[in-house]
Amino acid sequence: MNSKRKKIIADFTQNPVTAQAYANIALIKYWGKRSVELNLPAVGSISLTLDALKTTTTLQFDESLESDTLHLDHRNVAGKPLERITQFLDTAVQTGDRPKAKIVSSNSFPTGAGLASSASGFAALAVAVNEAMNLHLTKEELSILARQGSGSAARSIYGGFAEMMCGTSLDDDQDDFAIQLEDESYWDLRLLIAVTSTDKKETGSTEGMVRTAKSSPFYTGWVESQQADLDEMRRAIKKKNFAKVGELTEHSCFKMHGLAMSGRPPLLYWNGATTEMIHTIWNLRTKGTAAYITMDAGPQVKVLCQPGNSELVKQAMLSVKGVKQIIEAKPGPGAAIVTDNQIKVKNS
Ligand code: PMV
Predict the structure, then answer these.
(1) Mean pLDDT of the chain
(2) Domains by residue range for the chain, with CATH
(3) Ligand 1 pocket, 39 CB below 6 A?
């Protein structure tokens, strides 16, 4: 693969390094890959990084290990998640010739249930690899590296609002990285997350994307209409036009879910509480409270509102049967190395 990353001169430290990254929520969604093999998106996207959804990952390369190990949320994990990490590390090293790694990771929120744990997970791992291998990657290069683990991870390198760029090449990823639009201090917003299920999703995002691209009659329309949504969202964020940001957020979400539902077989990520929540929020809006819905590849409902309305919106969300928990998030920071309990931000 042609990568924007500079050729690696491996300089491994065997000391443990710890990184933190925060999940992000796409306001303008990404759905579809132009290359599954290289994990290249079919469309750009715009996101908000969230302070309440944090992954902390410690990575240690160790010559004495025979294989990589993963300890996730206090459990040893093998199979697919570990294979994904091994593949990610091999890609990062480029030569495949590397000491094996011990990875200990924990999330402050349910893993794999549509709360973007792969975004914060691979962003944290990319930052940890950069430090452990002394790669000195720029933010864009870090974003490219994170994207190789998970498309949405490219955006979690940054705090605040980020835009994922989408190239056109099928065998080159040099244009597929995220940039920061505004940092986390730019606009005080709230995103309330209703956890309606903590079960692992049945159909992962890659499988779902491949299915819809192959079988939905609406896929071309989805790809072709994305640029207009991105342009409008960028403008709305610049103007801090909350109603416009909210309306575009909801539109992109329902367009993505409509697309997924129109695949064969159809893909429905929602449960009963999800649907009930949609009506509750729309009802609230009819009565004058500005609150807007977004959802990803899972049944959780995320509601964007302004700080002054968050308590009222939260109470309405708690009234929905089946809601297990509400997580309240603000715009969060970018991925960073943690040293001596202090976060060291790598500015390259
Ligand atoms: O990061 P991935 O490849 O699992 O894809 C994430 C897709 C959505 O969360 C549904 C949308 C997005 O842009 O984050």
Answers:
(1) 92
(2) 2-186+336-344 (3.30.230.10), 190-329 (3.30.70.890)
(3) no
